[in-house]
Design a protein that fits this description.
By secondary structure, the chain is of the alpha+beta class. It is built from 11 helices and 16 strands. Strand 5, helix 4 and strand 6 form a beta-alpha-beta unit.
Length: 457
Protein backbone atom coordinates (compact mmCIF):
# COMPACT_ATOMS: atom_id res chain seq x y z
CA UNK A 1 0.00 0.00 0.00
CA UNK A 2 1.33 3.42 -0.96
CA UNK A 3 1.16 6.09 1.73
CA UNK A 4 -1.46 8.76 1.12
CA UNK A 5 -0.60 12.37 1.91
CA UNK A 6 -3.13 14.50 3.74
CA UNK A 7 -3.92 18.15 3.11
CA UNK A 8 -0.92 19.07 5.24
CA UNK A 9 1.41 17.00 3.06
CA UNK A 10 2.19 14.61 5.94
CA UNK A 11 1.59 10.84 5.62
CA UNK A 12 -1.85 9.74 6.70
CA UNK A 13 -2.37 8.41 10.22
CA UNK A 14 -3.09 4.99 8.70
CA UNK A 15 0.11 4.94 6.65
CA UNK A 16 2.17 5.97 9.69
CA UNK A 17 0.60 3.15 11.74
CA UNK A 18 1.31 0.56 9.07
CA UNK A 19 4.95 1.61 8.85
CA UNK A 20 5.34 1.12 12.62
CA UNK A 21 3.46 -2.19 12.58
CA UNK A 22 5.58 -3.64 9.77
CA UNK A 23 8.77 -2.63 11.56
CA UNK A 24 7.87 -4.47 14.77
CA UNK A 25 6.31 -7.47 12.99
CA UNK A 26 9.21 -8.02 10.61
CA UNK A 27 10.87 -10.69 12.76
CA UNK A 28 7.70 -12.54 13.87
CA UNK A 29 5.01 -11.79 11.25
CA UNK A 30 2.85 -14.77 12.31
CA UNK A 31 2.73 -13.71 15.98
CA UNK A 32 1.38 -10.16 15.54
CA UNK A 33 -1.61 -8.99 13.50
CA UNK A 34 -2.49 -5.40 12.53
CA UNK A 35 -5.55 -3.53 13.77
CA UNK A 36 -8.13 -1.36 12.05
CA UNK A 37 -8.45 2.32 12.86
CA UNK A 38 -11.52 1.65 15.01
CA UNK A 39 -9.71 -1.04 16.99
CA UNK A 40 -6.79 1.28 17.66
CA UNK A 41 -9.13 4.01 18.89
CA UNK A 42 -10.75 1.61 21.35
CA UNK A 43 -7.36 0.57 22.71
CA UNK A 44 -6.15 4.16 23.05
CA UNK A 45 -9.37 5.12 24.86
CA UNK A 46 -8.93 2.11 27.14
CA UNK A 47 -5.46 3.27 28.17
CA UNK A 48 -6.92 6.64 29.14
CA UNK A 49 -9.79 5.12 31.15
CA UNK A 50 -9.30 4.60 34.90
CA UNK A 51 -8.79 0.89 35.48
CA UNK A 52 -8.29 0.23 31.76
CA UNK A 53 -11.85 -1.05 31.33
CA UNK A 54 -12.69 -1.72 27.67
CA UNK A 55 -15.83 -0.57 25.90
CA UNK A 56 -18.09 -3.57 25.40
CA UNK A 57 -20.88 -4.66 23.05
CA UNK A 58 -23.54 -6.59 25.02
CA UNK A 59 -26.85 -8.24 24.20
CA UNK A 60 -29.16 -9.75 26.83
CA UNK A 61 -31.57 -12.71 26.72
CA UNK A 62 -34.05 -14.05 29.28
CA UNK A 63 -34.73 -17.81 29.59
CA UNK A 64 -36.85 -19.97 31.87
CA UNK A 65 -34.93 -20.74 35.04
CA UNK A 66 -32.70 -23.79 34.62
CA UNK A 67 -32.30 -23.48 30.84
CA UNK A 68 -28.59 -22.63 30.77
CA UNK A 69 -26.11 -25.49 31.25
CA UNK A 70 -23.00 -23.54 32.25
CA UNK A 71 -20.28 -26.12 31.36
CA UNK A 72 -21.95 -26.63 27.99
CA UNK A 73 -22.12 -22.87 27.50
CA UNK A 74 -18.39 -22.59 28.28
CA UNK A 75 -17.57 -25.22 25.66
CA UNK A 76 -19.74 -23.40 23.12
CA UNK A 77 -18.10 -20.04 23.89
CA UNK A 78 -14.62 -21.53 23.55
CA UNK A 79 -15.60 -23.24 20.28
CA UNK A 80 -16.79 -19.93 18.82
CA UNK A 81 -13.76 -17.98 20.04
CA UNK A 82 -11.35 -20.59 18.65
CA UNK A 83 -12.61 -19.91 15.10
CA UNK A 84 -11.86 -16.18 15.12
CA UNK A 85 -8.44 -14.55 15.58
CA UNK A 86 -10.12 -11.43 17.01
CA UNK A 87 -11.46 -13.60 19.87
CA UNK A 88 -8.14 -15.30 20.48
CA UNK A 89 -4.85 -14.11 21.94
CA UNK A 90 -4.83 -10.58 23.31
CA UNK A 91 -4.58 -6.96 22.25
CA UNK A 92 -1.23 -5.48 23.15
CA UNK A 93 1.04 -2.49 22.67
CA UNK A 94 4.43 -3.38 21.28
CA UNK A 95 6.80 -0.41 21.22
CA UNK A 96 3.77 1.91 21.49
CA UNK A 97 2.10 0.22 18.51
CA UNK A 98 -1.32 -1.46 19.03
CA UNK A 99 -1.46 -5.04 17.68
CA UNK A 100 -3.29 -8.33 18.15
CA UNK A 101 -1.00 -10.98 19.57
CA UNK A 102 -2.02 -14.40 18.21
CA UNK A 103 -2.98 -16.97 20.87
CA UNK A 104 -5.63 -19.35 22.15
CA UNK A 105 -9.39 -18.74 22.65
CA UNK A 106 -10.26 -15.81 24.93
CA UNK A 107 -13.71 -16.69 26.29
CA UNK A 108 -15.45 -17.10 29.65
CA UNK A 109 -18.83 -18.38 30.84
CA UNK A 110 -19.74 -17.77 34.48
CA UNK A 111 -22.66 -17.51 36.87
CA UNK A 112 -22.99 -14.23 38.70
CA UNK A 113 -24.26 -14.23 42.28
CA UNK A 114 -27.19 -11.93 43.08
CA UNK A 115 -26.74 -9.89 46.25
CA UNK A 116 -29.43 -10.19 48.96
CA UNK A 117 -32.29 -7.93 48.00
CA UNK A 118 -30.82 -7.42 44.55
CA UNK A 119 -31.87 -8.47 41.06
CA UNK A 120 -30.32 -10.37 38.18
CA UNK A 121 -30.13 -7.14 36.19
CA UNK A 122 -28.19 -5.38 38.94
CA UNK A 123 -25.83 -8.35 39.28
CA UNK A 124 -25.09 -8.43 35.54
CA UNK A 125 -24.59 -4.68 35.41
CA UNK A 126 -22.03 -4.84 38.22
CA UNK A 127 -20.27 -7.83 36.62
CA UNK A 128 -19.94 -6.02 33.30
CA UNK A 129 -18.53 -2.98 35.10
CA UNK A 130 -15.90 -5.27 36.60
CA UNK A 131 -14.61 -6.43 33.20
CA UNK A 132 -10.92 -7.36 33.58
CA UNK A 133 -8.55 -4.95 31.86
CA UNK A 134 -6.68 -7.83 30.18
CA UNK A 135 -9.61 -9.82 28.81
CA UNK A 136 -11.27 -12.09 27.92
CA UNK A 137 -12.69 -10.93 24.58
CA UNK A 138 -15.96 -12.88 24.92
CA UNK A 139 -17.86 -13.22 28.21
CA UNK A 140 -21.14 -15.06 28.80
CA UNK A 141 -22.60 -14.15 32.20
CA UNK A 142 -25.70 -15.76 33.73
CA UNK A 143 -27.74 -14.53 36.71
CA UNK A 144 -30.99 -15.91 38.17
CA UNK A 145 -33.85 -13.75 39.35
CA UNK A 146 -34.23 -14.51 43.07
CA UNK A 147 -38.00 -14.00 43.10
CA UNK A 148 -38.84 -15.01 39.56
CA UNK A 149 -38.81 -17.91 37.15
CA UNK A 150 -36.25 -16.49 34.72
CA UNK A 151 -32.49 -16.31 34.32
CA UNK A 152 -30.70 -13.67 32.29
CA UNK A 153 -27.78 -14.25 29.94
CA UNK A 154 -25.43 -11.47 28.89
CA UNK A 155 -23.46 -12.11 25.69
CA UNK A 156 -20.78 -9.44 25.84
CA UNK A 157 -17.74 -8.77 23.66
CA UNK A 158 -14.81 -6.42 23.79
CA UNK A 159 -15.74 -3.77 21.20
CA UNK A 160 -12.22 -3.91 19.77
CA UNK A 161 -12.92 -7.54 18.79
CA UNK A 162 -16.45 -7.20 17.42
CA UNK A 163 -18.85 -4.56 16.14
CA UNK A 164 -22.65 -4.52 16.31
CA UNK A 165 -22.90 -5.88 12.77
CA UNK A 166 -21.05 -9.02 13.92
CA UNK A 167 -23.28 -9.81 16.90
CA UNK A 168 -25.52 -11.92 14.69
CA UNK A 169 -22.52 -14.03 13.63
CA UNK A 170 -21.54 -14.64 17.26
CA UNK A 171 -25.03 -15.52 18.49
CA UNK A 172 -25.69 -17.81 15.49
CA UNK A 173 -22.42 -19.67 16.05
CA UNK A 174 -23.10 -19.89 19.80
CA UNK A 175 -26.46 -21.48 19.08
CA UNK A 176 -24.92 -24.07 16.75
CA UNK A 177 -22.00 -24.81 19.07
CA UNK A 178 -24.30 -25.21 22.09
CA UNK A 179 -26.47 -27.65 20.12
CA UNK A 180 -23.50 -29.71 18.88
CA UNK A 181 -21.69 -29.62 22.24
CA UNK A 182 -18.38 -30.73 20.73
CA UNK A 183 -14.96 -30.27 22.31
CA UNK A 184 -13.58 -26.85 21.29
CA UNK A 185 -10.44 -26.30 19.28
CA UNK A 186 -7.26 -24.73 20.62
CA UNK A 187 -7.23 -21.66 18.41
CA UNK A 188 -7.70 -20.35 14.86
CA UNK A 189 -6.16 -22.29 12.00
CA UNK A 190 -3.78 -20.74 9.46
CA UNK A 191 -6.60 -20.03 7.02
CA UNK A 192 -8.57 -18.05 9.62
CA UNK A 193 -5.47 -16.03 10.55
CA UNK A 194 -4.77 -15.33 6.88
CA UNK A 195 -8.38 -14.22 6.31
CA UNK A 196 -8.26 -11.88 9.29
CA UNK A 197 -4.96 -10.38 8.13
CA UNK A 198 -6.31 -9.84 4.61
CA UNK A 199 -9.55 -8.27 5.87
CA UNK A 200 -7.71 -5.84 8.16
CA UNK A 201 -5.14 -4.91 5.51
CA UNK A 202 -7.93 -4.21 3.00
CA UNK A 203 -9.63 -2.07 5.62
CA UNK A 204 -6.41 -0.15 6.27
CA UNK A 205 -5.91 0.34 2.53
CA UNK A 206 -9.43 1.80 2.31
CA UNK A 207 -8.74 4.09 5.29
CA UNK A 208 -5.49 5.31 3.78
CA UNK A 209 -7.08 5.89 0.37
CA UNK A 210 -9.82 7.97 2.06
CA UNK A 211 -7.30 10.23 3.85
CA UNK A 212 -6.95 12.69 0.98
CA UNK A 213 -6.96 16.49 0.65
CA UNK A 214 -10.46 16.23 -0.85
CA UNK A 215 -11.70 14.25 2.16
CA UNK A 216 -10.09 16.78 4.52
CA UNK A 217 -11.84 19.59 2.65
CA UNK A 218 -15.21 17.83 2.92
CA UNK A 219 -14.97 17.18 6.64
CA UNK A 220 -13.50 20.61 7.32
CA UNK A 221 -16.50 22.23 5.64
CA UNK A 222 -18.99 19.94 7.40
CA UNK A 223 -17.51 20.09 10.91
CA UNK A 224 -15.71 23.44 11.01
CA UNK A 225 -18.51 24.84 13.18
CA UNK A 226 -18.01 22.38 16.04
CA UNK A 227 -16.72 23.83 19.30
CA UNK A 228 -14.97 22.53 22.38
CA UNK A 229 -17.40 20.35 24.28
CA UNK A 230 -17.69 19.13 27.82
CA UNK A 231 -18.90 15.76 26.53
CA UNK A 232 -17.49 12.74 28.29
CA UNK A 233 -18.35 9.27 29.60
CA UNK A 234 -21.46 8.71 31.70
CA UNK A 235 -21.41 6.28 34.62
CA UNK A 236 -24.83 6.85 36.22
CA UNK A 237 -27.38 6.53 33.42
CA UNK A 238 -31.11 6.34 32.89
CA UNK A 239 -33.09 4.87 30.01
CA UNK A 240 -36.41 5.66 28.31
CA UNK A 241 -37.98 3.31 25.78
CA UNK A 242 -40.81 3.64 23.26
CA UNK A 243 -42.06 1.74 20.21
CA UNK A 244 -42.89 3.85 17.17
CA UNK A 245 -45.37 2.01 14.90
CA UNK A 246 -46.01 2.52 11.23
CA UNK A 247 -44.13 1.87 8.01
CA UNK A 248 -40.47 2.75 8.25
CA UNK A 249 -39.37 4.22 4.96
CA UNK A 250 -35.93 3.85 3.44
CA UNK A 251 -35.05 7.31 4.76
CA UNK A 252 -35.25 6.17 8.38
CA UNK A 253 -31.63 7.06 9.22
CA UNK A 254 -31.84 10.75 8.21
CA UNK A 255 -35.12 10.86 10.15
CA UNK A 256 -33.33 9.50 13.21
CA UNK A 257 -30.48 12.00 12.79
CA UNK A 258 -32.97 14.87 12.83
CA UNK A 259 -34.93 13.47 15.78
CA UNK A 260 -31.81 12.79 17.86
CA UNK A 261 -30.59 16.32 17.13
CA UNK A 262 -33.77 17.62 18.79
CA UNK A 263 -33.15 15.48 21.88
CA UNK A 264 -29.46 16.32 22.06
CA UNK A 265 -29.99 20.08 21.92
CA UNK A 266 -32.73 19.96 24.55
CA UNK A 267 -30.50 17.95 26.85
CA UNK A 268 -27.44 20.14 26.30
CA UNK A 269 -29.50 23.32 26.59
CA UNK A 270 -28.63 24.53 23.09
CA UNK A 271 -32.05 24.55 21.48
CA UNK A 272 -35.72 23.66 21.78
CA UNK A 273 -37.05 23.87 25.34
CA UNK A 274 -33.87 25.20 26.92
CA UNK A 275 -32.15 27.15 24.17
CA UNK A 276 -32.82 30.06 21.85
CA UNK A 277 -34.05 27.89 19.00
CA UNK A 278 -32.51 27.21 15.63
CA UNK A 279 -30.10 29.73 14.18
CA UNK A 280 -29.31 28.81 10.60
CA UNK A 281 -27.83 32.16 9.61
CA UNK A 282 -24.23 30.94 9.97
CA UNK A 283 -23.00 28.25 7.55
CA UNK A 284 -21.65 25.08 9.13
CA UNK A 285 -18.13 25.59 7.81
CA UNK A 286 -17.54 29.07 9.18
CA UNK A 287 -16.13 27.93 12.53
CA UNK A 288 -17.31 28.56 16.09
CA UNK A 289 -18.31 31.92 17.50
CA UNK A 290 -14.98 33.54 18.48
CA UNK A 291 -16.66 36.44 20.31
CA UNK A 292 -16.91 34.37 23.50
CA UNK A 293 -14.00 32.41 25.03
CA UNK A 294 -14.31 28.66 24.74
CA UNK A 295 -15.61 26.90 27.81
CA UNK A 296 -17.65 29.85 29.16
CA UNK A 297 -21.02 28.22 28.53
CA UNK A 298 -23.07 26.66 25.73
CA UNK A 299 -23.20 28.34 22.36
CA UNK A 300 -26.93 28.04 21.82
CA UNK A 301 -26.70 28.15 18.05
CA UNK A 302 -23.74 25.85 17.51
CA UNK A 303 -24.04 22.34 16.07
CA UNK A 304 -23.41 19.37 18.35
CA UNK A 305 -21.16 16.46 17.41
CA UNK A 306 -23.45 13.46 16.93
CA UNK A 307 -21.54 10.24 16.21
CA UNK A 308 -22.86 7.10 14.56
CA UNK A 309 -21.18 3.84 13.57
CA UNK A 310 -21.07 3.05 9.86
CA UNK A 311 -19.20 0.71 7.61
CA UNK A 312 -18.54 -2.96 7.04
CA UNK A 313 -15.86 -5.06 5.49
CA UNK A 314 -14.27 -3.71 2.30
CA UNK A 315 -15.40 -5.18 -0.99
CA UNK A 316 -13.77 -8.55 -1.60
CA UNK A 317 -12.49 -8.91 1.96
CA UNK A 318 -12.98 -12.23 3.79
CA UNK A 319 -15.83 -12.32 6.31
CA UNK A 320 -13.48 -12.13 9.29
CA UNK A 321 -14.89 -11.21 12.68
CA UNK A 322 -13.55 -7.93 14.03
CA UNK A 323 -14.31 -4.24 14.35
CA UNK A 324 -14.73 -2.95 10.80
CA UNK A 325 -16.82 0.13 11.51
CA UNK A 326 -15.90 3.78 11.55
CA UNK A 327 -17.47 6.48 13.70
CA UNK A 328 -18.92 9.18 11.48
CA UNK A 329 -19.82 12.63 12.81
CA UNK A 330 -23.00 14.53 12.00
CA UNK A 331 -23.17 18.28 12.81
CA UNK A 332 -26.56 18.36 14.56
CA UNK A 333 -28.21 21.79 14.38
CA UNK A 334 -30.67 23.05 17.02
CA UNK A 335 -34.36 22.41 16.41
CA UNK A 336 -36.07 20.15 13.86
CA UNK A 337 -35.05 20.80 10.30
CA UNK A 338 -37.60 22.08 7.86
CA UNK A 339 -35.83 20.40 4.97
CA UNK A 340 -35.25 16.68 5.52
CA UNK A 341 -34.14 16.28 1.90
CA UNK A 342 -31.25 18.72 2.46
CA UNK A 343 -30.24 16.86 5.64
CA UNK A 344 -30.35 13.56 3.73
CA UNK A 345 -28.23 15.02 0.91
CA UNK A 346 -25.57 16.09 3.41
CA UNK A 347 -25.67 12.65 5.03
CA UNK A 348 -25.22 10.92 1.67
CA UNK A 349 -22.24 13.16 0.96
CA UNK A 350 -20.79 12.13 4.32
CA UNK A 351 -21.21 8.45 3.42
CA UNK A 352 -19.13 9.08 0.29
CA UNK A 353 -16.30 9.89 2.73
CA UNK A 354 -17.18 7.23 5.32
CA UNK A 355 -13.77 5.52 5.13
CA UNK A 356 -11.87 8.57 6.36
CA UNK A 357 -10.64 7.53 9.82
CA UNK A 358 -12.09 9.41 12.78
CA UNK A 359 -8.71 10.83 13.79
CA UNK A 360 -8.25 12.28 10.29
CA UNK A 361 -11.73 13.80 10.50
CA UNK A 362 -10.85 15.52 13.79
CA UNK A 363 -7.62 16.80 12.22
CA UNK A 364 -9.56 18.19 9.25
CA UNK A 365 -12.16 19.91 11.45
CA UNK A 366 -9.49 21.58 13.59
CA UNK A 367 -7.58 22.71 10.50
CA UNK A 368 -10.81 24.36 9.33
CA UNK A 369 -11.06 26.38 12.55
CA UNK A 370 -13.11 24.13 14.80
CA UNK A 371 -12.26 24.37 18.48
CA UNK A 372 -13.27 20.71 18.80
CA UNK A 373 -11.41 18.15 20.88
CA UNK A 374 -12.99 15.11 19.18
CA UNK A 375 -15.40 14.32 22.04
CA UNK A 376 -18.94 13.41 21.00
CA UNK A 377 -22.09 15.01 22.41
CA UNK A 378 -24.18 11.94 21.54
CA UNK A 379 -24.28 8.60 19.75
CA UNK A 380 -26.90 7.04 17.46
CA UNK A 381 -27.04 3.36 16.49
CA UNK A 382 -29.55 1.59 14.25
CA UNK A 383 -29.87 -2.19 14.24
CA UNK A 384 -31.86 -4.43 11.89
CA UNK A 385 -33.33 -7.17 14.08
CA UNK A 386 -34.10 -9.31 11.03
CA UNK A 387 -30.35 -9.98 10.80
CA UNK A 388 -30.08 -11.27 14.36
CA UNK A 389 -32.81 -13.62 15.57
CA UNK A 390 -33.01 -14.46 19.31
CA UNK A 391 -30.39 -16.87 20.66
CA UNK A 392 -31.86 -20.37 21.19
CA UNK A 393 -30.13 -22.73 23.62
CA UNK A 394 -31.00 -26.41 23.04
CA UNK A 395 -34.15 -25.33 21.24
CA UNK A 396 -35.25 -22.78 23.87
CA UNK A 397 -35.34 -19.29 22.31
CA UNK A 398 -34.29 -16.41 24.51
CA UNK A 399 -36.36 -13.28 24.88
CA UNK A 400 -34.16 -10.32 24.07
CA UNK A 401 -34.22 -7.66 26.76
CA UNK A 402 -32.36 -4.46 27.54
CA UNK A 403 -30.40 -3.40 30.59
CA UNK A 404 -30.77 0.15 31.87
CA UNK A 405 -28.09 1.90 33.89
CA UNK A 406 -25.01 0.70 31.99
CA UNK A 407 -22.14 3.18 31.57
CA UNK A 408 -22.03 5.15 28.32
CA UNK A 409 -19.00 6.51 26.46
CA UNK A 410 -20.96 9.74 25.82
CA UNK A 411 -23.53 11.88 27.69
CA UNK A 412 -26.40 10.78 25.42
CA UNK A 413 -27.01 7.61 23.39
CA UNK A 414 -30.01 6.71 21.25
CA UNK A 415 -30.42 3.14 20.00
CA UNK A 416 -33.06 2.20 17.44
CA UNK A 417 -33.94 -1.43 16.64
CA UNK A 418 -35.81 -1.99 13.39
CA UNK A 419 -38.10 -5.02 13.44
CA UNK A 420 -41.87 -5.01 12.94
CA UNK A 421 -41.76 -1.47 14.34
CA UNK A 422 -39.06 0.90 15.54
CA UNK A 423 -37.95 0.34 19.14
CA UNK A 424 -36.24 3.54 20.34
CA UNK A 425 -34.19 3.79 23.55
CA UNK A 426 -32.66 6.98 24.94
CA UNK A 427 -29.98 6.68 27.62
CA UNK A 428 -28.48 9.71 29.33
CA UNK A 429 -26.03 10.83 31.98
CA UNK A 430 -28.07 11.34 35.16
CA UNK A 431 -25.24 13.23 36.83
CA UNK A 432 -25.43 15.94 34.15
CA UNK A 433 -29.07 15.99 33.06
CA UNK A 434 -32.15 15.90 35.34
CA UNK A 435 -34.68 13.17 34.62
CA UNK A 436 -37.34 15.74 33.74
CA UNK A 437 -35.06 17.29 31.11
CA UNK A 438 -34.35 13.85 29.63
CA UNK A 439 -38.06 13.04 29.52
CA UNK A 440 -38.79 16.30 27.69
CA UNK A 441 -35.94 15.60 25.28
CA UNK A 442 -37.33 12.11 24.60
CA UNK A 443 -40.77 13.56 23.89
CA UNK A 444 -39.14 15.94 21.42
CA UNK A 445 -37.37 13.02 19.75
CA UNK A 446 -40.57 10.98 19.50
CA UNK A 447 -42.49 13.97 18.18
CA UNK A 448 -39.96 14.47 15.39
CA UNK A 449 -40.02 10.77 14.53
CA UNK A 450 -43.81 10.62 14.37
CA UNK A 451 -43.90 13.77 12.26
CA UNK A 452 -41.50 12.35 9.68
CA UNK A 453 -42.84 8.77 9.73
CA UNK A 454 -46.57 9.50 9.79
CA UNK A 455 -48.44 7.69 6.99
CA UNK A 456 -49.07 9.72 3.88
CA UNK A 457 -52.64 11.05 3.61
Amino acid sequence: MHATSTATGAPSITAAYLARYRAIAADTPQALLPLTGAQRRFLITRRLTPGGRPEIVPVFFAYPRGTVDLPRLQRAATTVAARHPALCGAFANVRATPVLRVGGPSAEAARVAVAPGGSAREALREALLDWPADGPALRLLVAEEPDGDEELLAVALDHAACDEQSLGVVTAELEDAYAADAQPGRGPDEAAVADYREAVERQLAAEDAASTPAAHAHWGERLGGLATTEAGPAHSTGMLTERVPGAVRGSVFPVLLDAVAVAAHRLHGTGGLHGTGPDRSRPLGTGPDRSRPLGTGPDRSRPLALGYPWGGRPSGAPAALGCFINTLVHPALPGPTGDLDALADGWWDDLDHADTPFDEVVRAARAAGAGWNGALDGLLTLEDLHRRPPLALAGVPGRETHLAGRPLPVPLAVSASHGDDLLVRLAWDRERFPDATAEAAFEGLLGALRHHLRPAA
